[in-house]
Amino acid sequence: MLFNTAQFFAFFAVVLLLFYALPRPARKYLLLIASYVFYASWNVAFLPLLATITLVDYGCALWMDRLTRHRRVFLIISIAVNLGFLGFFKYFNFLAGMIDASYTMSIILPIGISFHTFQSISYIVDVYRGEQKPIRNLADYALFIAFFPQLVAGPIVRAGEFFADFYTWRKPDAEEVLRGVLWMLFGLAKKMVFADQFAQISDSYFGALAAHPGATAAWSGVFSFAMQIFFDFSGYTDMAIGMALLLGFHFPVNFMRPYLAFSITDFWHRWHVSLSRWLRDYLYIPLGGNRSGGTYRNLMLTMLLGGLWHGASFNFIIWGGYHGALLAIERAIGRGRTPSPLLYPLRALFTFVLVSVGWVFFRAATLADSLHVIEQMFAGAWNADVLVPLWLLGLVGIAFLIALAEERWEWIERLPSGSAWTYAALLIALMVCVELIGVTEKAVPFIYFQF
Amino acid sequence: MKRVSLILIASLLGFAGLDLLAFHTGLYPYWVATDSSIGYVETVLQHERIRQKTSPKQILGIGDSRMALVAKTANALTPETGYQFGTIAVAGTTPRCWYYMLRAIDPAADQYKAIVIGIESYNDDEILEDYAERESDLNYVIHQLSLSDLAEFSQSYRSPQRQWRAASGIAFKGLVYKRDLQDLLQHPIDRVRSVRLSWRDSHIWFYDFRADDKTLTGLSVDWPNRKLTVPPGTPPDIETVLRTRLVEPLPPQTGRHSAYLKYWLGRIRDHYRNSKTQIVFARLPRAAWIRPDLPVNPQSSVHELDKEPGVTLLPEDLFNELETPERFHDQVHMNQGGLDRFTQILAREVKSRAF
Predict the structure, then answer these.
(1) For the complex shown, is ipTM > 0.85?
(2) Structural domain spans, chain B
């Protein structure tokens, strides 16, 4: 059940209606059932896996709370179970293939496993650290892990954030409802109007590299993928945030106009914020963080593992390593401060180019393909093979202006509390865009659903 | 919350209103590419609307690309026959489209003496393609569909996905016009130029159109051995289709196609029920060679309709003389000589029946 289908909207509408129709104590059970139905709609066979992880973490947290000694044993059991499942489903074939291709097996990756594993680990570590009280009601905890708006691709929500909303739940007010609807529609437009249009270009480029030689095609293809992945993932997240808001939950912002970043460090403060935060709190800092001597090693390790989290291939490791190296270089040369308004556009453009080069490793099927694209980008001939249609570039221009205005004035944030006419006009414009420009012939899966 | 509901409802209404204004009126359809499915049907219907009808005895032909009525040839015989001919046959259309096209061109069912519908068989022979599931029908007739057609048109598909696509497409026509709109955004000036030119002159191009003069002379079939010999130089794709149609086993007769034809030809009949217009079915020349194992079905759609007043089946063998390699230029289409001869036979048959 993809977010960008009529089937999902019907499902969500039913859930929303029942949620507000039922008495309050029954609502969490409704959300839990709906979340499991949503998960089962992908592959019912993995429901026991989700239930097992939930039970193990729930039990380990309770045991940790009871004990004063040997708490670490339950922390290790929980993390081992989580990483064990993740490792088997996601990395077994990668590792086995490195030894001998005949050792590989036919393994289907359970949807969202990378996300709910990180969410589970954050919970168990927080309980171990004493930053989070263990959840005593199994249904409450199960809902935290399986909550359908963010189950398959985040944002990675911390237990503290989720349960703060959950235990002090209040009905969303009028402004929140308007904001929720706006987020959902913004997300849908990002996905169907931008991501899916650019997907056609990047797929045709990366799917037939030999057919598009030269630098023009290479930059077109890479630019298209840069647009696709941003609009795809941030579109999904916007929808998740909007849906949660309509149900009375407040998810953290996951994207803050990352292509306006003036450095790679700034980029990672704006891109997939919930993952960056997770990596910082549960990997980078435990590794030693900024303490002298290990900063660069820790940065590199964190980004390499962050790359590997995305997928089991050398391309993802290189992508992570590339960003780790850039972060280390920036730290070494002191590029952290915001540049002057005059320099900002140049720095932002340079950062965008650096990020786009990284996307090549993220998107290309093999390392050889990645190197071929990089070679074409920087040594290929410039010709007329521009793959991006002019009207789509025009749309990107409009999106860029919207992003600039949002960066400066946060006008989208303030819109639901402002003029009803402006709000309605924006909603109509978004609906018209989805209708006329969105790819509606087929539901294109979200990129991050594969992770 | 009342304010929220009002804002959301107003937004939805605003969106629906914009779609209605742009796509349910002639505002956008006028600018549709004339070589697209939507644009082609619109162009053909527009030609028929502006055709000078000097005689009260009007005959209209309809069908797909195999409908071989050439209006220019038929009208050259008007002094002899007394009838004036027009055609709204469009390649790729199906009986479902024909119903909506006829309804659009003749809403009161009082414009024509007869509607001649060209069909391939009087026996509802099963075909490989399931016409009921043909998605492109929506693109051909989207401009002719109104909200009141939503239920019937979408329910005529079997698969829920196609039903949904048809229903949402009729409700929000922008969903169907979007490809065309994106193409317009890509080449706006070229589009405006070509559309203007087409609206001005295309009726002349269409009227003067000449089909291919090539023939399939040299084609032969050794039926007992199911061996096909094609003329030298026949393109491989045409040879493949010829083989499928002429020597390979026929699809099983499941009645699926018959049910489809009964429904949509019946809808055409319903439109003209109690009118003075005669519905005439003409079995078209089928191919350059006719296989001997074609099914016979006395309960077929047209045989059933033939029992009703106002419906005429032209003799099944009326055009048999044209089913030769010399009259065809590919697997199903006749060459210009074949078309002219077909038209002459048809025009004289119409005269003899005095509709």
Answers:
(1) no
(2) 1-29, 57-148+212-353
Nearest to A436 among B14, B164, B181 (CB): B181
How many domains does the structure of chain A reveal? 2
Domain range for A351 is: 175-262+338-450
pLDDT, chain B, mean: 93
Q: How many CA atoms lie within 13 A of A167 on its CB side?
A: 12
Q: H or E stretch including B25?
A: none
Q: Which residues on A lie below 8 Å from B4 (Cβ)? A: 174, 177-178
Grade residue A292 by pLDDT with cuts at 50, 70 and 90.
low
Judged by DSSP in three states, A293 sits in coil
A6–B11 C-beta distance less than 8 A: no
| Cis-peptide into A48, omega within 30 deg | no
Please compute the mean of the pLDDT values over residues B91-104 and round it to a whole number.
Answer: 96
Measured between CB atoms, which of A389, A420, A436 is closest to B7? A420
Mean predicted confidence (pLDDT) in B274-286: 95
Mutate to test the interface with B, among A179, A428, A434 (most CBs of B within 10 A): A428
The Cα of B49 is separated from the nearest Cα of chain A by a number of Å equal to 30
Is residue A427 less than 8 Å (CB to CB) from chain B? yes
Predicted pLDDT of residue B138: 96
How far is Cα B104 from Cα A414, in angstroms, rounded to an integer?
A: 49
B221: amino acid identity, one letter: V
Residue A254 and residue A399 share a domain: yes
**Full-model pTM:** 0.84
CA distances from A354 to A255, A323, A350, B58 (A): 18, 9, 6, 70
Residues of A acting as catalytic residues: 310
Interface of B with A (CB under 8 A): 1, 3-4, 6-8, 10-12, 14-15, 18-19, 164, 168, 172, 174-175, 177-178, 181-182, 185-186
Q: Compute the mean pLDDT over every residue in chain A, rounded to the nearest whole number.
A: 90
In the prediction, which pLDDT does A431 show?
95
In this structure, which amino acid lies at residue A284? Y
Smallest CA–CA distance, residue A225 to chain B, in Å, is 20
Same structural domain, A146 and A163: yes
CB contact under 8 A, A437 and B178: yes
Q: What is the per-residue pLDDT across B307-329, written as a single tens digit (0 to 9) for each?
A: 999 999 999 999 999 999 999 99
Same domain, A160 and A190: no
CA distance A186 to A237: 10
List the one residue out of A62, A27, A51, A45 whose CA is nearest residue A133.
A62
Q: Would the CB atoms of A420 and B1 count as touching at under 8 Å?
A: no
Place of tokens 């949503």: A38
pLDDT at A444 over 90: no
A293 has a pLDDT exceeding 80: no
CATH topology of domain B57-148+212-353: Rossmann fold (3.40.50)
